[in-house]
Description:
Blueprint: H1 6-23, E1 27-32, E2 38-40, E3 43-44, H2 51-57, E4 65-68, E5 77-81, H3 86-92, H4 97-103, E6 109-112, H5 116-124, E7 129-131, H6 138-154, E8 164-166, H7 172-177, H8 181-204, H9 211-223, E9 228-229, E10 234-237, E11 258-263, E12 265-267, E13 270-271, E14 274-279, H10 286-303, H11 314-329, H12 337-342, E15 369-370, E16 373-374, E17 382-385, E18 388-390, E19 406-408, E20 411-416, E21 419-422, H13 431-439
Parallel strand pairs: 1-7, 5-6, 7-8
Antiparallel strand pairs: 1-4, 2-3, 4-5, 9-12, 10-11, 11-14, 12-13, 15-16, 17-20, 18-19, 20-21
The chain binds glycine and manganese (II) ion (2 copies).
One manganese (II) ion (MN) binds at residues 273, 356, 384, 386, 410.
Amino acid sequence: MPAPSSAELKEYASRRARLMQAIGPDGVAIIPSSREVIRNRDVHYKFRQDSDFWYLSGFNEPDSVLVLAPGRKEGAFLMFVRERNKEREIWDGRRAGPEGAVSDYGADQAYTAAELEGLLPQLLTGRAKVHYTLGEHPAWDSRITACVREIREVSRRGPSAPTEFVSLDITLHELRLFKSEAELKLVRHACEISAQAHVRAMRATRPGGWEWQVAAEIHHEFEKNAMEPGYGSIVGGGDNACILHYKENEMQLRDGDLLLIDAGGEYRGYTADITRTFPVNGKYSGAQKEVYEVVLAAQLAAIEELRPGNSSARPHEVATRVLTEGLVALGLLRGDPQELIDTGKHRQFYMHGTGHWLGMDVHDVGRYKLDAQPRPFEAGMVMTVEPGLYIAPDTAGVDPRFLGIGIRIEDDVLVGAKGPEVLTGGAPKKVAEVEALMAG
Length: 440
Ligand code: GLY
Ligand code: MN
Ligand code: MN
């Protein structure tokens, strides 16, 4: 990834400024990068930067640490990075080194990662709160806690040792929950290309093809747009649609089956998350269409709830209500819809939530509750809306024509100041539109 442009540098600096404002002068934040992970012997999995680290720096190298020390006279933004190494750079690629961290990434001071341990006492002394998420980086956990203990021991009469560790959930993740204009540009792009990938998949699907071939169409569209899957793509034909996290993508597609695709591309750190369910042969059967219309009605009703001031629990309540009424209308459940929901009977066919925050992580950061209550929506949040119905092939006591039908429809929605804005509308979801596209 190239070094950030000056506009990007400004954006990262404003995020750091807001975080430093949130943690205050008695706090210090420590954010390690991701590390490389071995896939097999000498080979690593493709590197993916830690989202918090990326959000604050745009720096895409492993084995680095970022420290924010508000008010520090020598500079508040410190980066600890891999040292330059001619030999390693010939084999593995470029490194910015401490010099590049200052010149290209705007660090006030930069050192090699190995130097952090020695500088920690100086960085932590006199700071009451260490904003650092314990439990995620075991090696740093022990170095940082050991350093705090040492400061405590030597500081009985001198400057004080930190007394609190604060998870980044409380500060940084609240910032990440609200997308800036610059972030929304990236999210919109990821959503647009990902919708295009679903269109391509619909066009390429035919009876006798294979799930992995359709996955390849999706991934082709991502890669030719400098994107990669933001999570493991799910391409499930027939009964496989009833396995929520099906990821083998290995079966042949049969005439008369549905195909459920849950796939989203990541663009410069921001992912889309889209699901469409369409007929392999281009035409929904009667039973498929009946279930599909219920899921679509639930999704459209839930999307309407993404408005500033509404409870963020509303989309799930509304979707569950529409789905359960639909299940009763189709004869898949019997009884009063509200009673069925209260006793959890709908969960046989709808066992997951209706959405999650979306951003740099597909299940993005940000609290869902404040003071134990579902928080209200505010402009700038992005959430998925993804109801579904899954009638497992071995379900007893239901009309056999419904068996093995699994349908989910998922869009990514911005809570706009004036109401919901669907970002993934480029992928058709109305029955007539899907059928027309597949016929064309
Ligand atoms: N693709 C993961 C999800 O829909 O939550
Ligand atoms: Mn999804
Ligand atoms: Mn999702």
